[in-house]
Specification:
The protein is an all-alpha fold. It has one domain: Tetratricopeptide repeat domain (Serine Threonine Protein Phosphatase 5, Tetratricopeptide repeat, Alpha Horseshoe), CATH 1.25.40.10. 68% of the residues lie in helices and 0% in strands. The chain is built from 11 helices and no strands. Helix 8 runs parallel beside helix 10 and helix 9 packs across helix 11. The chain is elongated and about 55 Å long.
Length: 202
């Protein structure tokens, strides 16, 4: 892994968060878990997220994965993180798809796999998830797991920057100087034409 990619990967890992659940069916437990997590009561959050996750709640599955990934409420467990992220990712949950991308990029609990990271980042990026758009852009800029394409990198940075992603703004400015006017124009058009895909159902 190059220093630039490694630094990007660690920056991505820092944005792992537990997200607010939907409030329907087993999500009552997920909602209580989220409240407990915000108060720092990680054992309660873990117990309630797990209950909701086992009942099939997508948000609880993703948030439980994050607890295992970050070690909140107990030791880190990449195997369990992968299990629950994958369950949520199957339901098209962008946050978990992004987190799977991180785990593949860093080689957490598996062999490092940039192509798999790109796959997961793309699924989340296509839903309009800014951190994944920045991450995917960085893979295109470096050619890690994908064919190098500065124009494609600029497109994804442009989309993420429009959502206020500061990382994307910095990287966008750097790569812009390396594009031809034609490449830049095409990337800007592609970004303008972008339509996000449907996100996970709540």
């Amino acid at each position: 892994m190059t220093a630039a990619i490694r630094n990007c990967a660690f920056a991505l890992a820092a944005v792992l968060t537990i997200t607010t659940p939907a409030f329907a069916g087993p999500a009552e437990d997920a909602a209580e878990a989220f409240t407990a997590e915000q108060k720092g009561d990680f054992p309660t959050a873990y117990r309630l997220y797990r209950t909701a996750a086992l009942a099939g709640n997508t948000y609880a599955q993703g948030n439980l994965g994050t607890m295992y990934h970050t070690g909140k409420g107990g030791p880190k467990n990449f195997t369990e993180a992968l299990r629950w992220y994958t369950e949520a990712a199957k339901a098209n949950y962008a946050d978990s798809q992004f987190n799977l991308g991180i785990m593949n990029e860093l080689g957490e609990g598996m062999k490092q796999d940039f192509a798999a990271a790109a796959k997961w980042y793309r699924l989340a990026a296509e839903q309009g998830y800014a951190p994944a758009q920045t991450a995917l852009g960085t893979l295109y800029a470096s050619g890690s797991g994908v064919t190098p394409d500065r124009g494609e990198a600029y497109k994804w940075y442009t989309l993420a920057a429009a959502k206020g992603d500061d990382n994307a703004k910095r990287r966008m400015a750097t790569i812009a100087a390396r594009l031809t006017p034609e490449q830049k124009a095409k990337a800007e058009k592609d970004a303008a034409d972008f339509k996000p895909k449907e996100a996970a159902k709540k």
